[in-house]
Design a protein that fits this description.
- Strands 1, 2, 3, 4, 5, 6, 7, 8, 9, 10 and 11 form an eleven-stranded mixed β-sheet that branches.
- The chain has two domains: 248 residues, 3-Layer(aba) Sandwich (Indigoidine synthase fold); 37 residues, no CATH class.
- The protein has 297 residues and is of the alpha/beta class.
- The N and C termini lie far apart (44 Å).
- The longest helix has 23 residues.
Length: 297
């Protein structure tokens, strides 16, 4: 049994200017043998932009901002590490388990550590067929509570992207584009959906983020499209996605297992192209986040 009053003090090793990075991408979104290499790429992108990377996760029940490589390896080697959102983070802390932080929990812990910029791949959102099975990511509601700018390539393609963009507006979350006037769709650079404002200069964008984060207690979405050379054509993505949805392994998955099962099959059908694109956009977002954090000092 865990101790009833087990301490959950935040271990904060972040050095300003810092960029928060999530562990779910590394622990659940990549093959284990690639995780440490991609972690190095993300760290390098942040550092080359003039900031300090701060990987966020839970190790032996302790929330850590600025994980060491040995701590990350504990998670990648553990075999089964839960994905932590705002509903199960407390249980992981209480029981002393490991955990990989999603967007929502990375935002929470980053804010506690005093970090204002977080780089991820894509945020969660409103799932398709919401009218049949209501499912909205905790990420959207975390943005209403935590004062952090989230650099992202839009929301994940398996979601209902127009509904997600509408929900962000309904919740009052500013969505600004970096060198784009549309809300990107993760693997695709273009949609018909607009952003609230566009910035072409990272220094100007950083000044806006500092102003807006100080003005109101909520997050900001910074939309940064996937690099053009890594974009996946919409028709190709649709083909892989439809084929994956019809596979028994995907149809039988439910709850929190549904999305990982679907993405695993899409990655397999694409012969790794979606994984490569995912890494490319995450590294691009880390680089932009590094520039913004450095300029916000």
């Amino acid at each position: 049994m865990p101790e009833q009053h087990r301490p959950t003090r935040l271990i904060n090793r972040a050095k300003a200017p810092a960029v928060a990075l999530e562990t779910t991408l590394l622990v659940h979104g990549l093959p284990p043998e690639e995780a440490l290499t991609v972690a190095d790429q993300l760290d390098d992108a942040v550092a080359e932009a003039g900031s300090n990377p701060a990987l966020v996760g839970v190790v032996h029940g302790s929330p850590v901002v600025g994980m060491t490589r040995d701590e990350l390896k504990l998670l990648t080697d553990a075999g089964s590490v839960p994905k932590l959102n705002t509903s199960n983070l407390g249980h992981a802390l209480f029981t002393g388990s490991h955990g990989a932080t999603t967007v929502s929990t990375t935002m929470e812990l980053a804010e506690r550590a005093g970090i204002r910029v977080f780089a991820t791949g894509g945020i969660g959102g409103v799932h398709r067929d919401y009218h049949l099975t209501p499912d909205i990511s905790a990420d959207l509601f975390a943005l209403t509570r935590h004062r952090v700018a989230v650099v992202t390539s839009g929301c994940k393609n398996i979601l209902d992207i127009p509904a997600t963009r509408e929900m962000l507006e309904t919740l009052g979350i500013p969505v600004v584009g970096y060198r784009t006037d549309v809300f990107p769709a993760f693997y695709q650079r273009q949609t018909h959906l607009s952003v609230d404002a566009t910035f072409d200069n990272p220094t100007e964008l950083a000044a806006y983020l500092a102003f807006e984060l100080a003005r109101h207690k909520r997050g900001i979405v910074v939309a940064n499209p996937i690099p053009e050379s890594d974009e996946i054509a919409q028709n190709q993505w649709d083909e892989w996605l439809q084929e994956a949805r019809n596979l028994p392994s995907v149809k039988s998955a439910g709850g929190r297992d549904a999305t990982p099962a679907l993405l695993a099959e899409v990655h397999r059908l694409s012969a790794g192209r979606t994984v490569d694109a995912n890494i490319a956009l995450a590294v691009s977002n880390a680089g932009l986040a590094g520039q913004l954090a450095a300029a916000m000092r």
